[in-house]
Amino acid sequence: MIFIVVKMTVRPERTKEWLTLVGDFTRATREEPGNLFFEWSTSVDNPNQFVLVEGFASREAGDAHVNSAHFKKAMDTMADAIATTPQIISTEAPGSGWSAMAELTPRHTS
């Protein structure tokens, strides 16, 4: 699996519209055959920073994503809204998605 995390700091005046701005890109990516997950979150420390967590089934699926028309269009659109160059971690990870965390489970109370 290709595991990617991207931190994107958005211009303050564009923060409220960010998820709408990337909506078509998000939907198109989630429909890609090799996409495992594509999830946006906001930073608890910086309200203008969004964190994107992505998973692709293989290197080929990741390459297809980066070469897609919706990726290229999104990069052009996002360039007008970001405040700084995004930070990225991209690595190959074992497995094919999320696993259950062994160290923590819900406590059942009565």
Automatic annotation (TrEMBL):
Keywords: Monooxygenase, Oxidoreductase. The keyword Oxidoreductase applies. The keyword Oxidoreductase applies. GO terms for molecular function: monooxygenase activity. Residues 2-93 form the ABM domain. InterPro entries: ABM_dom, AI-2_Isomerase_LsrG, Dimeric_a/b-barrel. PANTHER family: ABM DOMAIN-CONTAINING PROTEIN, QUINOL MONOOXYGENASE YGIN-RELATED. This is Antibiotic biosynthesis monooxygenase. The lineage of its organism: Bacteria, Bacillati, Actinomycetota, Actinomycetes, Kitasatosporales.
